[in-house]
Design a protein that fits this description.
alpha+beta; seven-stranded mixed beta sheet
């Protein structure tokens, strides 16, 4: 009896399981569409990331790797719109505020008392070691963080962030 049921079950699967149905086509189409959308999103993110990378600029005869972008301010970021200056030495870029806060605390402990965090339109966070009024001060700030062994930096860091509202 068990053998007959087993054979009947296999026959039922063979007869109905191999048929292509509209539902199967629809499911395959949806999966392919989702994969394509993910690939397009990844490509757009890569393009935005490349756009956000710093470019070489010459300011007052000083060559700086610089990026200009609109920024925002968070309540516990250590800086306000009135306090931020034209040239800011970026030592960290993060997607999560938790990581940015940890880096800021490490910077403060290492002697960067004015370390701060600003935010971007795409919910990213920049950790700034120093905010400077002139290109010459910014150049000195870059050299300071480059030579500081307590700060772990990966390319393209460090560089200068110029807030868009101060770029005029």
């Amino acid at each position: 009896m068990k053998k007959i049921l087993f054979v009947a079950a296999i026959a039922a699967v063979a007869l109905t399981g191999c048929k292509t149905t509209e539902a199967n086509y629809r499911a395959a189409y949806e999966i392919a569409k989702e994969k394509q959308q993910r690939a397009e999103d990844d490509g757009a993110t890569a393009k935005l990331q490349t756009f956000a990378d710093p470019k070489e600029s010459i300011v007052d005869g000083i060559k700086l790797m610089m990026h200009t972008e609109p920024i925002g301010f968070i309540t516990d970021g250590g800086v306000t719109r009135d306090d931020i200056q034209k040239y800011n030495v970026v030592v960290g870029r993060f997607r999560q505020i938790f990581n940015a806060r940890q880096m800021r605390q490490r910077l403060i402990a290492s002697g960067y008392e004015k370390a701060c965090i600003v935010t971007t339109r795409d919910a990213g966070y920049y950790v700034i070691a120093e905010s400077c009024a002139t290109a010459a001060e910014a150049e000195k700030g870059l050299e300071r963080v480059k030579s500081d062994t307590s700060i772990s930096l990966r390319a393209p860091l460090p560089y200068i962030l110029r807030p868009a509202h101060l770029a005029r």
